[in-house]
Amino acid sequence: MTTTGLKPMPLKTYNAIVKDFNRITSFNRKSENELRKKYKEVPPSTMGSIISLLVQRSMKQSYRKSPVISSKYYELYEELMKDKNQGDVINRLAESQGISPALFARSLLQNVSSDSAVVKKYFKDTTLIENKDLAYQVFLGIMNDNQYGPYADIIKQSIGLEYELRLERELRMMNISFSDENLLRLRGYDKTPDFKLDVPIAVDNFIINWIESKALFGDEENHLGYMKEQLMCYWNRFGPGMVIYWFGYLEALDSTPEVNNMFILRTNFPDKSSITQYKIDL
Predict the structure, then answer these.
(1) Alpha-carbon distance values, 87 to 14, 84, 125 (Å)
(2) Are 105 and 148 in contact (CB under 8 A)?
(3) What is the pTM of this model?
(4) Lowest-confidence region among 7-16, 85-94, 105-114
(5) Which of 248, 47, 1, 18 has its CA nearest to residue 147?
(6) How far apart are CA 26 and CA 145, in angstroms?
(7) Of the four listed, 1, 19, 87, 253, which is most buried by Cβ atoms within 10 Å?
């Protein structure tokens, strides 16, 4: 299913999804699929993005980096590893402790090394772990976690790039001239939108100077973060622009003061009928 024609999500629907998510006791694909089945009217890409956001926040809120916790997890791990037919130990333990498999794996590695830099290396490349049983289990934990950890990060980065390229193609097809992030950085800009238009366009009579592509669902929390870290800077530097939340956004965001004043929100790139292009007379 494509994101074309996505409508902003009512707050009531979003709150219902969050409420059901908070009832989940384990972060696995089975729980995720149950949520998807309950909300069949929500596009899979939108539902996946919402679940990803909620998992990330839940892990930040509930997980504490502590030697005591790492030690406890390692004891549980060693106990299960005594069984020769142990199978996928980290995923089983993560489910019992109510955290994501990749995060449980990271906690185990913190018990192996107190050096956070070493833990980071092990987490990104499990072949560096001397204990081969542990290396294999950590690898399984990371690969079976599609919401947290390096494997999940690669997926999100790939999706983000895919939609940036999609937007770039649409701009080129409409002969809209632009400068991308790389070119803007070469010009000395530190914070840059994905695309700065060389000549402004009007979308439904709203002037657009830049476009930011977000391959995710926009709710109030992450939108506020983007406002503080990115969008305000773009507006101050380049004027009004457009933010595309490809997987949808909360309907309530359309009522915020900055929308239709500093920028407009869309779930896809507008068609030609709503765009007015300007030309510079030389």
Answers:
(1) 37, 8, 21
(2) no
(3) 0.87
(4) 85-94
(5) 47
(6) 12
(7) 253
pLDDT tens by residue, 259-278: 999 999 999 999 888 888 87
Helix (H) or strand (E) holding 278: none
Amino acid identity for residue 12 in this structure: K
Q: What angle do CA 141, 139, 131 make, to 5 degrees?
A: 115
Over the Cα atoms of the chain, what is R_g? 22
Residue whose tokens read 């001239």: 177
The structure tokens listed for 176 are 């809209």
Beta bridge partners of 218: 249
Encoded tokens for 223: 């939108």
Question: CA-to-CA distance for 142 and 153, rounded, in angstroms?
Answer: 11
Q: Is there a contact between 23 and 98 (Cβ–Cβ < 8 Å)?
A: no
Q: How many CB atoms lie within 10 A of CB 141?
A: 27
Contact 244, 167 (CB under 8 A): yes
Rounded Cα gap, residues 136 and 114, in angstroms = 20
Q: What ranges do the domains of the chain cover?
A: 67-143, 166-277
For 218, the token pair is 């926009």
Which one, of 178, 278, 168, lies nearest residue 238 by Cα? 178
